[in-house]
Amino acid sequence: MDKFTYQYPVRxxxxxxxxxSAIKEEMKQVGKNVLLAYxxxxxxxxxxxxxxxxxxxxxxxxxxxxxxxxxxxxxxxVQEGAQxxxxxxxxxxxxxxxxxxxDCCKIVSAQARLGEDIWDMQxxxxxxxxxxxxxxxxxxxxxxxAEQNNGAVITHTAKKLKQPLVxxxxxxxxxxxxxxxxxxxxxxxxxxxxxxxxxxxxYMGRPQGDNLADEINEAVMRNVIKNLRALIANPDDDFAxxxxxxxxxxxxxxxxxxxKQTDFQCHMLEHxxxxxxxCNHGQGLAVIHPTLYRHLLSxxxxxxxxxxxxxxxxxxxxxxxxxxxxxxxxxxxxREIGLPTRWSEMGITDETVLRAAADTCLLMPGCCKQFTRDxxxxxxxxxx
Length: 384
What we know:
By secondary structure, this protein is α/β, with parallel strands linked by helices. Helix content is 50%, strand content 11%. The protein has helices spanning 19-27, 42-45, 48-58, 75-88, 99-111, 118-123, 185-203, 212-233, 238-252, 265-277, 281-294, 297-310, 319-336, 351-360, 373-381, and strands spanning 11-14, 33-37, 62-66, 92-97, 135-139, 151-156, 161-166, 172-175. Helix 7 (185-203) packs parallel to helix 11 and helix 11 (281-294) runs antiparallel to helix 13 (319-336). This is Iron-containing alcohol dehydrogenase.
């Protein structure tokens, strides 16, 4: 394993029914003016908005609304949030939702304390923010693990780019599986596949030899597969719901990445497609993963074969055959859980969009193969 220095910065409150006591405990320790950030309206439809407002008022907080954060959060929405923070003297940001809300707030937290544009700071001057508005997260849609780290993915609509930015870590994260029960199953499935993708992308990164991080990763991947099947079969399975929530956290809290370079070429490619199409993240990953891994068979067969045996429980007569059977098992699982395997199933039929995505996506050095843009275009085009 490579050298590392490790700190687990985010305080976790995990468990069914833990939200009320945990939120009240945490909010009593923060400043008076709170920005309540949330998504497109489900928070109010389910009654959780009123409940949260009651809890915050009990803690003596002045609450400023920051709603309407949609999937694939935008640079413009970040600027809107930063303006609210400055205008109302916000002391603390409470992000309530899934990865999109949480990612948006991480960058709001940083932008509000900057005297310059955060996109230019990171992509032109290659510098990163060091001061942030304190924040916490209440997770209502698991899968991204966004509450566990300081990375975010933001869409810059004017630039036609969807790329990572560095923002704030949360002071705490509330992981109460009861809060995910109103989420449609298709979103649960998409989120769980994002978790599986995080695991696979970390697993396929260098170094390729046996190491503890990868062995833990294999257990998390098996757990995602088992519990997603269980939850689809019985949406009232609270145990499976909680397991998937913790799987999501483990996949992105750096534990599986210790000593690893990681890969994440599938993610960067999906982000690029999303910048042009606003497609669902988990669905896009489901289309990309099997095809990209088939393009890795020559260079990555040893690791793909190990994943095939230890995660998918399949074995062929040769290493390459075992690797291929594992990719087939992954694609079969994608079909089993109802995710798309072709772009046309997502309404994406324009080859020029895929060409543009391949030409603008970030190229990742941690993969066992360094893809060219033409190769990435072939990966995308094969699934039209």
